Amino acid sequence: MHLAPDMKSYVLGALMLGASSLFWFSVGKMAGAFSWHDTFGILSVVSLTCYLVVASLALILYQERRLFVGVVAIGFVPFFLSIPFRLEYVLLVLLALLAASRSFSSVKDELHNHLAFRVSPPLRRGLPILLTVFSLILASVYYFTTGASMSVSGKDLLPKSLFNLIVKTTEPNILQLVLPGFNHLITVDEYIRETLRRDASGSFDVLSPAQQAELLQHARTQLFEDFNLQVGGDELLSDAFYQAIIAKSEHLLEPYKRSIPFAFAIALFLFLRTVAFPYSWLVICTSWGIMRLLIHLRVVEIQEVQRPQEFVTWRHIG
């Protein structure tokens, strides 16, 4: 490719800015509810991968720190255009620029420490710094756009579908031991009737309908009095116990509701950092392949330079 080195650097920077714009646009579209959307979710992953691959090439090929940090800084303009502004984001971007500068220094130091050019060692030092700061920014976006204002309920922590799955899985063994005769398909009154018939040796059936109704009402009250819950006799037993568990969890969660969103943000950051380890190898391998292709196409070249090296020895006298 017959372009001046400076022009090639500008092309690389333009690719970084394009990928950064797509990434933050996609994140901004998902940030409202911070839920996965197929189109924007896939676009965000692909664009972030492209951005990091191009940034990895820039870390190796750029000779000036200010050029790399400048491109990274301009790449955050779409971030402020896509996400509702907060002063905290300015501090995070400044932290990202410091991380970019540190990443550049780490890569260059590693390149100078090796006599032969290799792609992997310098990127293994510089890329994790960028991934860490991106993980922090994404976790912060989640917290400020969704987590800080959301109200966490027991149903959020234990959805009905998950509860039904747990009941069906544990009913044959565990629930039958805790609540003999438990069946998620019967109603509350049916469960109480079967329990009374079993415990009272059939004397329940000789009671009048009015006495049975009064006894069922008393048993329902006793069964759910610890949960401060009024349950109808025709409700499914599993639904009644789900309401009881949710009511109890709401009481337990009340003192911690303000801190739970922050805990979720920390958990998201730790999750992203965990995923970043195998993800960084994907980026490094892709960068290695593209670098080999650029060398093959003679877009870049490996040059051998002689550099002075200092060493210490005994001083000769005379």
Fraction of residues in β-strands: under 5%
Radius of gyration: 31 Å
Spatial gap, N to C terminus: 58 Å
Unreliable segments of 5+ consecutive residues: none
Strands, total number: 0
The percent of residues in helical segments reads over 70%
Q: How many distinct folded domains?
A: 2
Name the helix and strand elements from N-terminus to C-terminus, one letter apiece: HHHHHHHHHHHH
Would you tell me the overall average pLDDT? 82
Number of helices: 12
Shape: elongated
Label the structural class.
mainly alpha
Q: Mind summarizing the main beta sheet?
A: none
What descriptive keywords fit this protein?
318 residues, mainly alpha, 2 domains, 71% helix, elongated, membrane
What features would you describe in this structure?
The protein is mainly alpha-helical. The protein has helices spanning 5-31, 38-61, 65-74, 77-82, 87-112, 120-147, 154-157, 160-178, 188-199, 209-224, 237-253, 260-296. Helix 1 (5-31) packs parallel to helix 3 and helix 3 packs antiparallel against helix 5 (87-112). The longest helix is centred in the C-terminal third of the chain and has 37 residues, at 260-296.
